[in-house]
Design goal:
Layout: E1 4-5, E2 8-9, E3 12-14, H1 30-41, E4 42-46, E5 61-67, E6 87-88, H2 96-101, E7 104-108, E8 115-123, E9 130-134, H3 170-173, H4 176-186
Parallel strand pairs: 6-7
Antiparallel strand pairs: 1-2, 2-5, 3-5, 4-5, 7-8, 8-9
Length: about 200
């Protein structure tokens, strides 16, 4: 089962040992290629074993999140801050199409009738999920941005280094193993400040 909504797709796939949605499978096969594609453009999570028991035999399944790639001249996990004129919207849109055509949006969602500005920043370095942030700094994933929040992204200042912020979604930021891998991939993009000499 699957369905595209704009530039996002959320398929549900059987998770047999040879399935592209399974965590492991035969190497050098079409299943491995499909799994590599899946993990490059999104992520996958196992569903509870009893999810579809009322519909028939118990089948292990996984739900995947996919986003279509955007054209870019650098890795999309190196966060940027687009300076395009804001496009007014009734509510913020976080699709791939919006990232390409409306990377800066304004909507009436602030206190005392003030506009809020949201900007497309890039993708999660681990699962490639689209990330957005608000100019007012309120990037809590429990708020308007939801799972598209860039609030968990990695900042080199935290390690006393310089360089670009690295995109990280809140799901990967709350997964210990993914967080460690993200830092390992991020550090090569950062530099330590030059030591001052007398």
């Amino acid at each position: 089962m699957s369905g595209w909504r704009g530039n996002c797709c959320v398929p549900v796939a059987g998770s047999s040992p040879s399935s592209p949605a399974a965590p492991s499978g035969p190497s050098g096969t079409k299943h491995e290629q499909a799994r590599t594609f899946l993990e490059h453009h999104g992520s996958h999570t196992p569903l509870p074993a009893e999810t579809f028991t009322e519909s028939g035999p118990t089948i292990r399944c996984r739900i995947a999140r996919l986003t279509k790639p955007l054209r870019t001249d650098q890795p999309e996990y190196l966060l940027t801050t687009p300076q395009h004129p804001a496009v007014r919207v009734e509510r913020p849109l976080f699709t791939g199409a919006a990232a390409a055509g409306r990377p800066v949006q304004a909507w009436s969602g602030g206190w005392v009738g003030r506009d809020r500005i949201v900007r497309y920043r890039g993708r999660c370095i681990e699962c490639r999920w689209l990330l957005w942030s608000c100019d007012d700094g309120d990037n809590d994933p429990r708020g308007a941005l939801g799972e598209f929040s860039a609030g968990y992204s990695l900042d080199p200042d935290e390690l006393g280094m310089t360089g670009p912020q690295i995109g990280l979604c809140h799901r990967c930021g709350n997964d210990g193993e993914r967080l460690r891998t993200a830092y390992q991939r991020a550090v090569p993009h950062w530099k330590r400040p030059a030591e001052r000499t007398a």
